[in-house]
Design goal:
Elements: E1 5-13, H1 14-20, E2 24-25, E3 28-29, E4 40-41, E5 46-47, E6 50-51, H2 52-56, E7 57-60, E8 77-80, E9 85-93, E10 99-110, E11 114-125, E12 151-161, E13 163-175, E14 180-186, E15 189-192
Parallel strand pairs: 1-9, 4-14, 8-15
Antiparallel strand pairs: 1-7, 2-3, 5-6, 9-12, 10-13, 11-12, 13-14, 13-15
């Protein structure tokens, strides 16, 4: 048994999702779900350029944990050992920082492996959880940046059973007033050794 921790950062292009509402993907019109129990499955919408999830979800993990060339895509396949922890954090790519994303539901959809004890953690000020987000000193750009504490949320689970896992993450898109604009999901992979 191991006890390493793998961090996965998920960046979601909320502007492209919102701008896709009403557009046709090979005859299927994209709608943004307003029901948290039935999120819009981004992988179900495809056109000549590929699936919608491949255009809007970017997952990044430590290089030595990634299987194949999946780094930076929506189908990130990572490898873990029994007992390892995995943490997911999400952020949005949004013009003007007007939208945010919140991961809210992990579901294993296929495979014989298992991630267990999935919990949401936070908010905790850094450096306990999350990363410091320094602010540049505008009086002297080359000087030491000013410290800024950041509260961060992440989901954490533990690799419990060897095997392959296909899972989905559901997330909500919220505006700058924390109004929920809609719910979506996509499905990556994990391999547990």
């Amino acid at each position: 048994m191991s006890n390493d921790t793998m961090d996965i950062l998920v960046a979601i292009d909320t502007d492209t999702i919102l701008n896709s509402v009403g557009k046709s993907f090979n005859g299927k019109v994209f709608t943004l779900s307003n029901d948290s129990t039935k999120p819009s499955q981004l992988y179900s919408y495809a056109d000549n350029f590929g699936r919608l999830d491949q255009s809007v979800v970017y997952m990044i993990a430590p290089r030595n944990s990634v299987i194949g060339n999946s780094q930076g895509g929506s189908e990130l396949n990572v490898q873990m050992n029994l007992g390892d922890s995995i943490r997911w954090r999400a952020t949005s790519l949004s013009k003007g920082l007007d939208h945010a994303v919140v991961l809210y539901q992990y579901t294993q959809t296929d495979g014989n492996g298992r991630i267990g004890h999935l919990d949401q953690n936070g908010p905790e000020p850094s450096p306990v959880y999350g990363s410091p987000l320094p602010v540049i000193n505008f009086d002297n750009y080359a000087s030491t940046p000013k410290k800024q504490d950041v509260e961060n949320y992440f989901w954490q689970g533990e690799a419990q059973i060897k095997g392959n896992i296909r899972y989905s993450w559901a997330f909500m898109i919220v505006d700058s007033q924390n109004k929920v604009l809609g719910y979506c999901s996509w499905d990556p992979y994990i391999t547990i050794n």
